[in-house]
Design goal:
Layout: H1 6-16, H2 23-31, E1 36-43, E2 46-56, E3 59-67, H3 76-90, E4 95-101, H4 105-113, E5 117-122, E6 133-138
Parallel strand pairs: 3-4
Antiparallel strand pairs: 1-2, 2-3, 4-6, 5-6
Length: about 140
């Protein structure tokens, strides 16, 4: 992800999340957080989706994964996540973790298909509706 991708990323963020990250949050991730890694999927120079993570010792915490609604069900989310796994291996990350809404069954299915395992629950994790988050882990990579 580059600074010039930010407007398209923010538009996708607004479309996909009830509590979207702010422009300031993404700017911090791209410009200041040395442990942040963000990637975009593009076609014809258009950003279709993105994924990001924080590297903490030998773990990667996946912060977000989003695909523009008009481009879903085309394998873009899967490709982004697979790319992140490969990039993690090059960074010597051994484990990946993420939280996903209990109601987001399609995302949970994708994560499980790519080897993530449910390991716990964070009760009332999401600010907008107090929905629980399912904690998932993958590894060792």
């Amino acid at each position: 992800m580059r600074l010039e991708d930010l407007e398209e990323v923010l538009a996708i963020e607004e479309e996909c999340f009830s509590v979207p990250w702010s422009k300031a949050s993404f700017l911090y991730e791209l410009l200041e957080n040395e442990r942040a890694f963000y990637y975009v999927a593009r076609a014809n120079r258009k950003v279709l989706g993105y994924v990001g993570m924080w590297m903490i010792l030998d773990e990667g915490h996946i912060t977000n994964l989003a695909v523009a609604p008009a481009y879903r069900r085309r394998g873009i989310g899967r490709a982004l996540l697979q790319y992140l796994v490969e990039a993690s291996k090059m960074l010597r990350i051994r484990y990946l973790t993420l939280e996903v809404r209990r109601s987001n069954l399609s995302a949970q299915l994708l994560y499980e298909e790519l080897g993530f395992v449910r390991t716990g629950v964070r009760p009332r994790y999401y600010q907008d509706n107090q929905e629980d988050a399912i904690i998932m882990w993958k590894g060792p990579l």
